[in-house]
Amino acid sequence: MSASKNKIHPHKYSMWIAMASITMMFIGFTSAYVVKRAQANWLSFNLPGIFWVSTAVILTSSLTIHLALRQFKARNMSSYKQLITLTALLGIAFAVCQIIGFTDMKNHGLALDTTVSASFIYVIVGAHILHVLGGVVVLVIMFARAYRTRIRTYSPVPIEVAATYWHFVDGLWIYLLIFFSLAR
After folding, report:
1. pLDDT per residue as tens digits for the range 80-118
2. How far is CA 54 from CA 25, 28, 95, 182, in A?
3. Which residues 6+ apart lie within 8 Å of 24 measured at CB?
4. Most CB atoms closer than 10 Å: which of 43, 91, 125, 177?
5. Of 108, 116, 119, 1, the residue nearest 50 (C-alpha)
6. pLDDT tens string 29-62
7. Count of other CB atoms within 10 angstroms of residue 164
8. CA angle, 124 then 107 then 88, to 5°
9. Using the 8-state DSSP alphabet, how is residue 40 labeled?
10. pTM (2 d.p.)
């Protein structure tokens, strides 16, 4: 086997480095959460139910981007366009669900500035939403490229990188939801 076949594409390598950095950031956030939770003024509360709905939404979006990648590789551009569009819409729906969750928290007296525990939820989940929205921007760009009349290349690398990142933010959300559910 040639050495060039063993090399990882630079965009994929960069994505793995970025995901490692993001992981370290969220490990730092959740570690700080655990340390602060030990203080006497910590207030435990249940997460809004909409966060569980958003979990189903992001899991579904992970499936749609996986299927979009398969359709792209099969050069079934019609199905690819539909699936990449659906993935972007599901990403936006996830962010909307999170905002509804924040509104629910605020309506129950848990605003950003009321308790340390609520503040942690806002900051950590808010940081995750920003990463999801970054992924949505990439999906919208891919959506626009999919609907161009002239396709310049059929390289699967961009959609592979986007799918890897999308699965990552999905897995990160699952981790955060489990963490917040157990570490109240």
Report:
1. 999 999 999 999 999 999 999 999 999 998 888 888 888
2. 22, 24, 8, 18
3. none
4. 91
5. 108
6. 999 999 998 886 788 888 999 999 999 999 999 9
7. 16
8. 50
9. T
10. 0.89
Q: How far apart are CA 98 and CA 43, in angstroms?
A: 21
Contact 152/2 with Cβ under 8 angstroms? no
Angle, helices 116-146 vs 10-37, to 10°: value is 160
Residue 8 DSSP one-character state? P
Q: How far apart are CA 107 and CA 86, in angstroms?
A: 31
How many CB atoms neighbour CB 109 within 10 A? 11
Q: How far apart are CA 172 and CA 116, in angstroms?
A: 22
The residue count of the chain comes to 184
Integer angstrom CA distances of residue 43 from 52, 118, 124? 21, 8, 17
